[in-house]
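Why do we bother with a discrete structure alphabet at all? Because it lets us treat a fold like text: something you can write down, compare, and reason about line by line. To make this less abstract, here is a complete entry for Origin recognition complex subunit 1. Read it the way you would read a sentence in a foreign language you are learning: slowly, and without expecting to understand everything at once.
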Amino acid sequence: QLDLLWTRKQNVMYNLFDWPTQKHSKLIILAIANTMDLPERIMMNRVASRLVCSSTLLFGIWDCSKIVQRCVALPLVCLLILAKLCPQLFGNVVAALSGDARRCLDICRRATEICEFARHKRTPEIVRMAHVTEAIDEMFSSPYVNAIRNASLHEQIFLKAILAEFRRAGVEEATVQQIYHHYVALCRVEGLQSPTVSEIMAICSRLGACRLLLVEASNKYLHMRVRLNLSQDDVMYALREE
């Protein structure tokens, strides 16, 4: 996962991509990133130069039909749920968020566990739609998701700004200053007055105190680095209007 190896000096990525270029090296690097132009966006010239002989394979986001098709084809017993119980539900939920088929697998696994637990209490039964619905509600109703839904409007806008910056840079870490530019633009869209720097820092501090964000402990202020303490999928789900 290439974006997780990013550092300020990029020494880790440079050493990694320089290794296959050494004489008698038998190492092959397969790097994955969520942004197809990640090398152009974040790599220094000395790192990008190590990719001269590399080739790139682009994968599009899976839509509902592709998610269902891939998951049903997997030889797992629990995925019979997917084939029998309203497969479009899984596909639509997952495709609307990120196109990550692992969400379908998690839902099926959890639905099977819920059914297994219920079986110990009552008469034996098979996995039903009620178990699937409960698994979906449970997956997207974590304390973090509820905290986001109960956050103030400006705190929610700040989280939207973080997602926007992550999509722009292709890296799941950003400075408060980078996020601030998106925040101001979103405030204009919402017809709100842009906050001051001190107000931005206060919002960031509150979200960090709630553990929704991981905030760098320093006195760099706008140059402090920020990461999400939950997945982008969960943030998008929590911010989605009913």
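What the structure line is telling us, in plain words: Confidence is low (pLDDT under 50) at residues 74-79. The chain has three domains: 2-52, 64-140, 147-239.
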